[in-house]
Amino acid sequence: MSKKKSPQRYKMHVKTGDTIQVISGRDKGKVGEVLKTIPTTSEVVVKGVNVKTKHVKPQQEGESGQIATFEAPIHSSNVMLYSTKEQVASRISYTFTEEGRKVRMLKKTGEIIDS
Known about the structure:
The protein has 115 residues and is an all-beta fold. Helices cover 0% and strands 42% of the residues.
């Protein structure tokens, strides 16, 4: 008997709600907010980045077709966390607060992301 394997989940450096900057690809330099993370494929959906169009057929008679736009996922290795205060992208490090909580900190600015 074979065991059913659960899909591999990758540890990602970004979380939903983070402000990031795209560092490679067609949308290089764009800054946006992470709307969704997909840990199984290590991808993120970012607001205003990698926008695709989809032509939707009419579902009912008399209804007209539409052209829908949506944000497609991009790989998490193509994004860096972005400091809105300093206007700079940075890698992250993990540090502990005085209370003993583990938080993410931007290496360039020292700004703590997790509040």
